[in-house]
Each structure stands twice: as C-alpha cells, then as structure tokens.
Amino acid sequence: KSKKQKQTTYFLKEAMNLNSAAEHLTKVVTGVVSGPSKETTDEWNEMESIDLESGAEVRSWTHVKTGARLRLVYTMGPMVNLYAVVATEAITNAWSHCDDGLPHTLEHLIFLGSKNFPYKGVLDKLANRCLARGTNAWTDVDHTAYTATTAGSKGMLELLPIYIDHILQPTLTDAGFLTEVHHITGEGEDKGVVYCEMQGRETTAESIAERACLQALYPDKSCGYASETGGMCQNLRELTNEQVRRYHQQFYRPQNLCLIVTGCVNAQELLSICHQALMTSAQHQIKEQVDLGRPWHTSTVSAWIPPQDRIVRVEFPAAQGEETGVAVLAWRGTNYGSYFEDAKQAMLWSYLTDGAASPLTRAFVNSGDCSGVFPAAESFTTGYRQLWFEDVDESKLESIDSKFQAVVEAINGQIDVKRMRDVVQRAKRRTTAAIEDDPATTVVTPILKHFLYAEDMDDTDTLAESIDPLRLLEMVEKVDAAEWRRSLLDLVKKPRIAVLARPSATVADTQRDEELERIENMRKTLGSDGLKLKTAQLEEAVQINEKPPPPEMLRDAVQPPDIKEAIAKMFSVQHETIHGPVIGRKQVIDIVQGTKFCRLDLALSTHHIPLRLRQYLPLLSELVFKCPYYDQDGALVPYDIAVEELRRETVTYSAGWGLGGSGTGDIFFIGSKLENGNLNFGPRLAKRALIETKLDDQDRLIAAVSKLALEFSTDLRDGSSVARMSLRAATFAAENTNEGLLLAAPQRLLLDAIKKALSPWGRLSGARKTFLSELEALRKALLVAPACCRVAGDFSNGTTFHQRPLDELASMLGEITPSSHTQKNSIIRPWGRRIAIGVASLEGGSAFMARCAPGPAIDDVDALASLAVVIEYLTALEGDFWTKIRGTGLAYGASLRTDAASSLVHFGLYRSADPGKALRAAADVVLAYSRRELEIRHVDLDNARGSLASGLVAAEKTRSAALASAWRRELLGLESDRHVKFLTAVANVTEDQALNALDTWLVPLFSDAFSITTIACAPAKLKTIATATALDENGSTKVAIVPDIMTTFKRATTRSQPNIPVLANDTLLTPRSFVKKVSVLLPLAVAGVAITVIVLNRAKRS
Whole-angstrom Cα distance, residue 384 to residue 6? Predict the structure, then answer.
C-alpha cells in the first residue's frame, strides 16, 4: 500500500436507523443470534459480542486446538468478505535481510497450490465457481492479508476451507518460485512477477521518500517497521526458495492467523466449517505445539533519537527539466491503544490541512508551493505521523520544513474553536455516511490492528473501544481552547525529520547505464551455454506450473451457489424521469430506502461549447468552489468564509468534467451530498458555482493555476498516465470531445500561457482581459446547455419536498441554444497506428501498454454480454492471460475490457518486463481460440459467468453505489433496469456466442491494422520495444517514436501557421493552435502512422 494514501479516517457509528430492528430479527431467524451473546463449545471459545448502533454485530472466537482467531462482522447486504490476516514481521537475522521481501514473495506463492489442492490456479478457479471474482491479497509492513468477496454467503462457506489450506499448507515449489518471484531469462535479463512489480515501484518518488522516512524514524535494525516488505530488487536477485519456506514455517502458524468475515453469514455454519478446515490444514502445527512468540511482541521499539541532520535529501529518476518533487515531514506517534489521543491528533491535522481555507493549505497550496498537503498516520507498537507535500515546486523544496515551522508558530496556539467544532462535525457526517453504506468494512482495520497489537487480542472491551470512534469524537468535542493550544505547540516542539525527494535526470541516466551493464555482465558470466540452460529451466518451470487441475476437482470440490440469494439483497433504486418545461432539460428523482442523506446533482452538456472555451474546464472545476462569491445582497464573501460554509453545510461537494466515468467526458457536473433536511442547500451551491463566484480574483487564479500545473507535471512522469493520455489523444478528436482535448500535456502548456496572462505583462498587453472574458464565456455557455437535474434520497414516505430544489435549479438555467443539441462523432482517428513514448522515470523499470479497437454499441446488450463473458473467461485469475503473461513473468498484469459508452474494446499491459512477448502471448491465445485450436473449458465458462455476475451485483451493493449506477444509466440514456437485463443476458451466454464475440471483437484487437496502440517505456528502450511490439509480420504499419511527450507538444506549437499566436510568442492558445498541439501525436499521424496506447491495468494482487 502507498503510505501517502493512508490518510487517517475515523469511522463513526450512525444513530440507530429504522432497519436495525428488522436486521436483528433476521439474525435471530438465520441463527446468527441464538441464545446468550457469549457461548463456549468444545471447538471455540467466544468472547462478549459487540453491538454497533449501525445494526452490525461483531462476534469474536478463539479456536481451542490451534489458537486461530475468528471475527464475524454481521451486517445485511449482498456481498460477503473474507480478510485472512497473518501477522508477519521482516527483520535482519542470520538467514535473511529485512529488505528481502519475504512477506511479499510468500504472499504471491500462496496462490500456486496447496497440499490438498496442488495445482497453480485452482484456488482462483474455485473462487470463481463460488461467485467470487477470484482472490486477492496485500502485504503491509506488519501483516499480510488474503481476501475474497463472494455474492452471497454460500460461496464463501464453500471457499473458506480451500483458502485456509493454501495459507497454512502451500506447495512452495521451486518451479513456482522461479516464475513468480525471480529468474534470469535466456537474454540475461532479470524477470519474474514479483521482481517486475518491485522494479516498477522502488524508483518512484513516493516509494523513495517513504523508505527514507521510515529508515529515519525506525533506525534500529532489530525493528521491522523500516523494512521493505515488498523486496528490493538487489535482494530479490539473491533470494532463495528455501528462505521463503523457512519464513512460512516461522510465521504462518494458526496462532498468527485471524479470519475476519463480514456480511450476512450464519455463525454456526461458519464455526463448523472453519473448525474442520483448521483441523485438516494445521495438523502438523497442532502436533508440534512450538511457541515461537507473537510477532511485534517479542521485540521492542527503542526510544527515538532524531538524527543529527534531520533533513534527509534523496533523488528519484526523472526527465530532464522535471520541475516537481515530494516532501514529507514525519514524527514518531503514539503507542497502540492511545485511542483518544489519536482521535484528537486526527482532528488537529484536519483543522490544519483539510479544505482550501485551512492554514497549511493556504500557506503551501494557495501560494503555489505544492499541489496538495495532507496528513497520514500508521498504528504500530509505536506508530508515526506524516505530513505529505505533493508535487512540490523544486525551487521550494528546501524551504518546506522551515516554512511549516513558521506557519504553525504564527498561529501562536490560537485555535479557532468554532472552526474546530465544524471540523469535528463534518468528520461525523462523513463517517456516518460511510458506515451507513458499509458498516462492516469500516471496522475491519481496527479489528486487524487490535489482533496485531492489543496486549490481549481476545479482550473485547478494548476492541469495542477501538471501533467506537463516536464516543472518542464526543470527547474531542469537549477539548477546550487551552488544550488545543498545548497540542499545537507540542507539534512544533516535538522532534521531526524532513525528507526532500528531488527529481534527477542524472539518476535516471545512471540507473539506465547500470541496468544495461548488469545485463551485459550477466551474459558474459553465463555464456552461451549458461543462457541456454536458463531458458530450459524457465520452460520446465512453466510446464510444471501449467499442469491443469483434474476436471473432477474443479467440478466436485465446491457446489456452485445460486446468485439469486445475493441479487435479493441488492439495494434497489426507484427511478423516475420528468421532462422539464424546456426541451433538453430533465428532472430525475431516485429513491432508495433507509438512508439519512440525500444528493442533488446537476449535469450540463458541453457538446455545443467551442473548443477555445472547453479547454478551460479543468481550471473552472478547480475555481468554482474556491473563490469569493457575491451573496444575495451583492456583498462579496471572502473565499475562506465561502469554503468553510460549504464544508459546514455538506457531507461532500464536487464539480468537474467526466465525473461519471467513461461516456460522460462531455458533461460538466456539480453535485453535493447533504443530510436529510438540508437538501435546499443544493441549489444554492450550484448557483454559487455557475453565477455568483468571482472568477477574476487574482490570488485564487494564481493558486489554482499553480496547483494544476504541479499536478499535471506529476502525471507526465507516470508511465501509466502518459500511456492513457496518449491513447486518448490518438483515439478521440479534440474538436469534438473533451476525451481528446483535456489531456495533461496540452493542459500543462495552457497553464503556462495563463500564468503569463496573469503576470504584469498580461495586464499591459490585454492577455489577462482576453483570458478572463473566455473563462466567463465558458461559465455562461454552461448556463444555456442541455441539463439533467437529479435529487436522490429516501422519499418513500410520500412527501414532495424534493421537487422544490429541482424547480430552483431549472429556474437558474437560461434558455437553451438550438446548436446545443448537435452531437458530434468523437472517434475519428484512423486505425492502424502505434506510438512508443519515452518516460525518463521508467529508466531501469517496466513498460506500460494499451491497445484499443472497435467494440459493440452500448445498446447491443447481447453482444456486450457475450463479449464480457469471453473477456472474463480469458482474464480470470489463473485463466489463459494470467498463466501465459503474468505466470511467465512477462508482466505484472494484463487486461481486456470493454468501453461500451465509446464502443471500444481495450487490451492493456501493466508493469511489463517484455511488452513485445506479452502482447504476442495474448494474441496467440485469442487466435488459438479463433482457429478452434483451443476448446472452451465448460467449467471455466460457467465460472466466468458466475464471476462476472458477482461483479455486477457488487456494483449495486450499497446505497451510494446503487444511486451512482442509476445516475450513470440516466446520463448514458439507458433503461433504469439495464443492469438487471445485462445480468440476465450474462447468465444466458452460450459457448458459441462467446466464441463469436471473440472472433468479432477480440481478433481485430490483436491485429495492428485494426487497432491503435501506445507504449510508455524508458527512452533507452524505445526502439527495441517499438520493434518488438509489432504483430503483423508483413510490416503493414509503422511505429512513431516520441522520446519525450512534452517536447513533441511544444514543437507542434512552433509549427503553427505564422498568423496564429502560439506560446512562444507569449500569447494565449487559440483554438487552431491548441488543436495542433493536441493532435500532436502529430508526426505520428503523418502518413497514417500507427499509434499504440498504454493503459493502467490495475494489478489484481499487491
């Protein structure tokens, strides 16, 4: 997990709702609550249960024979979740190093077979059969968690024994280690799934900063908190399978295992199944009865002595001219169990950082020093707190720490108690909403940490305290001004370290040269015979790993459950569409029962707005809620007061383009989530954004432009982001759609131009006036756009209070212009193109690829269902793509997906060590089925239908998810029951229909002539990878080489016609110059050059 994403969130309990009594009755009927709350059997000892006000119940057991722990969080809903948590610790000792990555490598190898199911991939195939979309896992510093989610409880109960067997009795074969962890290829290169993953991760700015931070906070080598549990590449090259086996023997014991199950599950059935599974899979541990100690309790965390030089400077590989870095301030935190102090600290950090008007955001983000500042924290035996500064202007890096000190000291301990009260109240609203949606998931982390660190992990009193933050926040509300002042002063006095991560082209060059030298040395060391031996060893390992499980095992090991159980528990939305008094305006009402919150959303079409105005949409999105505004009396309300009002009145609020996902890129959204009874604030929020906001505020403009510029700069050093941007530019026409217009590279150049317009030169030349007039013209154009207004909430009691906000929104909008109804074709790019783009930060790392071709139309349900099933079949965990690509170490992930809204089908490679071979492997699989050289496996096709259906049910598993899906269906013009029809179509897909979809849509995808491809890789590998990724043997397509994407866009500008202003002339972008800039996969487009795209394919396992 990325630590920068670990912002502290305290989940609060909601008040008892009307459904709680019914939910409790259901538990009694199903046997979850039977007899007294505490019971002891011969197999299990039960502790006191914990009833949550949300209606959920937490029950805890200890297995008598093995010492394993079981926690059940009972709550209603269609999905059941498993988190099998193993306490793991990585330290340096006589047989291993803390950076060997033993927890991570073992996590991967667990999935390659077990004693009773000794086949690679059988776990995931059986998981699909149990209505799960495979299995998953993550490795953290202090634990490893294995997860699965099934539609309904029956599948989970079938899967649990098989999963436990894999965890406690894995095969851990040498062949599995070779392909999954690390091997040397016949070309002398280092590959392997784990190696490929870490090669792409360890050189990122965030990973480098995080490692330096933890090494400074936990310098004691006997403490594992500073370890790289994922594994450093140099360590992975030396790691052996024998070390992995020894690590499993030491840590993967039942005493270190906690099974956390959430959802609507019968407790008696769960206890019986887990008991039988533990007695079967933990026999050897039961016999041995060896006490190896409890991880994280046999060693102590020594007192921290801050380093003499508390400023730690590191560098990360980046392109020449890269302008942004990362800064982290860090402190040692509290000891585990300091729940009140942790809650108080979390609120203090929210006060300092949360919102545009917060002190640190004003000082660092609004001034243009960085794009964002946010806190993070981790609970260990002794935890830590961090403050991350994202996308820091390189020239400001050295001043971050001293400026932080000055800003906090300037507050002088004077906490605004009223604002602090607002911060706590907003935290309550947001967490109450989260718990209402998914009360089980919100308590998983506290349960997990209690298992790891509580002195008595079976003490449910302390467990109850850890999952009851409402009580803690009520205590925080009572903290007086004097105590807040002391806490703030302690913050600046307490020792801290600062990590400054700076971009470096020199580091990128050095890593590239070292990688090439190491490969060359390996080739010399092994020689021709040695390289041939490596090839033979890998081929043998692949052959062993790919031995399929017997059909009878897949057929008989589990009994496939009926998905109707899960469908019956889905949250339903009553959807009603009302056409307004003006053509092109709609009013929508979505009703979902049992929620304490409501939504008001406004969607405005941008189809009719000219390109020269649409290019400002990202900037407008950043400005509308962060500027001063004029109230009803015409008085100007300062931006900080305006922001605080929004945060006080809402649960969440947002504005932006394309917020509804694919197919909604040409829609501008304004939305808010509010407490019931406050729905009338929604229209006021929308009016402020579209009419009342003062967009010409110089300070806010400069802050917004600086923030966006820093964010786009970071995107441009990320391989996956560059690949996605390139694909969109190659596929969509900027003139017709925002999908092809609002890209990071041209936006970055546009922001540079706006900066000049806002300068003194801009005032004198008139550029500032021109820019502001166009920004205002964009806002006015949105007021006369076709619109859809939606209210959502629990209106089931027959009241009509929801109508007034809809009418207010309708009256705010102007008369629609006739031209606004014109729809344009968004995809006009010719097929048959490939583009390879250099990204300096990928030196020594992996490549990213994306590829697209025509797909079915969005209204063709049967074609989409058939294609979805065959894609699920091919890409299932341990399916054809998995075994041929990830299983052989060619890439960390490979994906197929449909984009029904754009009528496209996509293929992607994520962190690929050899994108050419990976692409060829995928093509060979598809073509083998198309030629009928491979036959569809009937059991796997059944699994694909079940797995896909499970994913579709999961998309509607909470009230918020159901409302979001209903809103998206409305915006795309689909029937309100489209998801039900699609589920039915998926269940009825036949083998012939699946193969026909493969022939029709996937075969062209793997033909260069009918697809578009982009590849992001290290500049040194551009030509090699570009050549290797050609599939057509006749060379009918050519590849465009783009050494640096920004350089290419800038050159496009200078080639503009003389009478068109360009950035080089210190003027704003005009429509024609901007189009030239956007279509600059330009030299590529010349002569129908082939383009290749890269998309981020989220890895299925961490």
Answer: 12
The one-letter amino acid at 734: A
How many other CB atoms are there within 10 angstroms of residue 1102's CB atom?
16
Q: Are 723 and 717 in contact (CB under 8 A)?
A: no
Q: Which amino acid is at 866?
A: S
d(CA 406, CA 408): 6
Query: What's the pLDDT tens digit per position in 505-536?
Result: 999 889 889 988 999 999 999 999 999 999 99
Does residue 979 contact residue 955 with C-beta atoms inside 8 Å? yes
Give CA 508 to chain center in angstroms: 27
The two tokens of residue 1003 are 């075969």
User: Which helix (H) or strand (E) element contains residue 52?
Assistant: none
| 545: Cβ contacts below 8 Å, ≥ 6 apart | 112, 120, 173, 175, 176, 179, 883, 887
Length of the chain: 1102
CA–CA distance, 149 with 159 (Å, rounded to integer): 10
Strands 585-591 and 787-793: parallel
The model's pTM is: 0.84
Q: Could you tell me which of 762, 716, 807, 897 has the C-alpha nearest to residue 322?
A: 716
Average pLDDT of every residue of the chain? 85
227: how many CB neighbours lie within 10 A of its CB? 27
**Helix segments in 631-766, DSSP class H:** 639-649, 681-687, 698-715, 719-731, 744-757, 760-765
* Short-list 1012, 1032, 1006, CA closest to 931: 1006
Cα 959 to Cα 270: distance, rounded to the nearest angstrom: 27
d(CA 1021, CA 915): 11
**What does the block give as tokens for 688?**
């402020």
Place of tokens 């009302």: 578
Q: Exposed/middle/buried for 414, CB within 10 Å: 0-12, 13-18, 19+?
A: exposed
Contact predicate 575/806, CB 8 Å: no
Residue 269: exposure state from Cβ atoms within 10 A (0-12, 13-18, ≥19): middle
pLDDT at 823 over 70: no
- H or E segment and range at residue 63: strand 57-63
Determine contact, residues 709/752, Cβ cutoff 8 Å.
yes
DSSP labels for 351-376? HHHSSTTSHHIIIIITTTS-SEEEEE
Looking at residues 887-910, what average pLDDT do you find? 90
- Residues in Cβ contact with 142 at an 8 Å cutoff, skipping those fewer than 6 apart: 87, 88, 89, 224, 225, 295, 296, 380, 452
Distance of alpha carbon 144 from the chain centroid: 19
Q: Which is nearest to 44 in space by CA: 272, 305, 263?
A: 272
The pair of structure tokens assigned to 416 is 């605004």
CA–CA separation, 444 vs 221, rounded Å?
Answer: 30
Rounded to an integer, what distance in angstroms lies between the CA atom of residue 564 and that of residue 155? Answer: 12
Q: Please, which residues bridge with residue 825 across strands?
A: none
Q: What are 164-223's pLDDT values in tens digits? A: 999 999 999 999 999 999 999 999 999 888 998 898 889 889 999 999 999 999 998 788
Note whether 464 and 329 are within 8 A (CB): no
Distance CA 422, CA 123 (A): 49
φ and ψ at 503, to 5 degrees? -70, 145
The answer for residues whose C-beta is within 8 angstroms of residue 1019's C-beta and 6 or more apart is 838, 839, 840, 843, 1043, 1044
Provide the 10 A C-beta neighbour count for residue 811.
10
pLDDT at 9 > cutoff 80: no
- Residue carrying the six token digits 């634990």: 143
List 908's β-bridge partners, or say none.
850, 895
Provide CB contacts within 8 A for 741, sequence distance 6+: 611, 614, 615, 734, 1078
Task: List, for residues 137-153, the tens digit of each pLDDT value.
Answer: 999 999 999 999 999 99
Residues 6+ apart with CB under 8 A from 1089: 833, 834, 835, 1037, 1038, 1039, 1040, 1083
362 in Cβ contact with 388 (< 8 Å): no
The packing angle between helices 719-731 and 1045-1054, to 10°, is 40
